[in-house]
Amino acid sequence: MQKDFRLEWRQRAALSGMLLYVGSTVFVCYLSFALRGGELPVPAWNALFWIILLFTAVNAVAKGFLQESRGRLLYYYTLVQPQAVIMAKIVYNALLLLGLALAGFGLYAVVLGNPVQNMPLFLANVVLGAVGFASTLTLVSGIAAKATNSSTLMAVLGFPLMVPMLLLLIKVSKNALDGLEFDASRSSLLTLVALNLIVSAVSYLLFPFLWRS
């Protein structure tokens, strides 16, 4: 994790590019709705937020393994256990996505309004979404890095895996937007937690076999 943070700090242009991506997509939404005098409906506000976050996650997490050269991976192989590599990548990507999600939500709320009525539920859902996107896409990035056409494979493998999680995230966010209590979203939140734990456990167990390939 320390190596990834140092690398991100040295390559600040990449982080600035991700922030610019979030800002530009929010600005396009503003041009499409608010600037033309139309009010963005709550379901559309919710769906657009998660679409922006999903594509931001793909762009941010894809470089997790794709930027590592084969020689550097072999060097890591002599230093650390594969489980340490995959868990460090997941935690780092989760923190990165959480920061981008909160920054994106702040800008999104300023530009297009903030209809969220249950903010604690919405923020808890954003945290679970960031962890879920990070854990799933990190494993997919590790698989794609071992193949040719890795960027295409990342998209092909990643999006189908994200659809069930994305549907749950949108559902919980809709409850938060409507001001419903935690009890109305309890089962969905528990399912999201279970999905995150399952993906993390699968990554921990299977990544050593991928690491040796």
Automatic annotation (TrEMBL):
Annotated keywords: Membrane, Transmembrane, Transmembrane helix
This protein's record includes keyword Transmembrane: yes
UniProt keyword Transmembrane, yes or no: yes
Localization per record: Membrane
Major location (coarse): membrane
InterPro entries: Cyt_c_biogenesis_CcmB
Domain of life per record: Bacteria
Stored Pfam families: CcmB
Transmembrane segments: 12-35, 47-66, 90-110, 122-145, 152-170, 190-211
Protein topology in the membrane: Multi-pass membrane protein
Family indicated by similarity: Belongs to the CcmB/CycW/HelB family.
Name recorded for this polypeptide: Heme exporter protein CcmB
Organism: Hymenobacter lucidus
